Structure formats: C-alpha cells, structure tokens
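Please check this protein record:
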Amino acid sequence: MDGACTNFFPTNFLQIQHIHFLSDHIGALFLKEEYSDVALLVDGQRFDAHRVILAARSDYFRALLFGGMREMGLREIELKDTPLAAFKYLLRYIYTGQMSLGSLKDELVLEILGLAHQYGFQDLEAAVSDHLRAVLSVRNVCLVYDTATLYQVREERCTCERCCSNLSLISSSVG
C-alpha cells in the first residue's frame, strides 16, 4: 500500500521549473529606481541599476562593482566611451536576456557588438556576430569588416574577406 502512494504523482512533479518567473521578475527591475543601489551615467543620462544583477551578468561589472576598484563604493559611475543608444539595448539585455536586432541599423548593431565585447558578454557577442553574418551585404561589408577587425572577431572577418573575394570574382567576370 505504501508503494502505491509514492507512485501516485508523475515524475515531472519532482522538479519545479519557474525560470520564466525569475526572468520576468528580474526584467521588471530594468530602469526601476526601486531597490537600485547604483546609477550608471552614459553621455549625461542616468540609468538606475542593481549591482548584484550587473555583477551576476558580467565579469567586467563584477570587477568594477565588487573587485576593489575605486568605483566599488560610488553611488554613480560614469561609463566613458559608451554610445548611449547601444548602451540602452545592452542594459535591457542585461536584465532580460533578450534583444531584437532585426529592425536596428547596422551602425547600432555594430556599437552593440562593441559593447558586448568591451563588457564581456560573450554569448551576446556571438549572437550579434551571427546576425551580422546573416545580413552581410555589399552595402555593409566594409563597415562590418572594420568592426570585426577592431574587436578581433575572427570568424566575422573571414566571412567579410570571403564576401569581398566573391565580389572581386564577380566584378572581374562581368568586366
């Protein structure tokens, strides 16, 4: 009789998966002053943030906020050489793990790639690189190549070089 009671519930009840709730709750903190303990200043604009979330998502922010650097005790931290529009997308990504690149201009996507590289978001850097390879064209190949070279994104650079090589073959066969 005891064995019958233990087998009554299906095994899928043995593990609870509420990751989407966690993601939703952390995402709800995005740009909220409530519970924030640090402000990031980018181009004069203030972004309320949460040290623990920033540190959990990025080694760069972990070192900046908890690694003994002078910024550790500051309430406001200025992020220099950080493009404002790209930073807004990055900060939303930090809190939600989501970013839609489809409607963004190439220049903005490349700035996001630069920030992902600068702040150590390797998964985002890889995803943005995949997107850029998918939308690579004659119009943007030089810009993408220059950015890939700057951030040492080898696969992106090789794709651009192959694209240019193919364009060279096409133009020589047409002429």
In short: The CA atoms of residues 109 and 159 lie 17 Å apart. The longest strand covers residues 38-42.
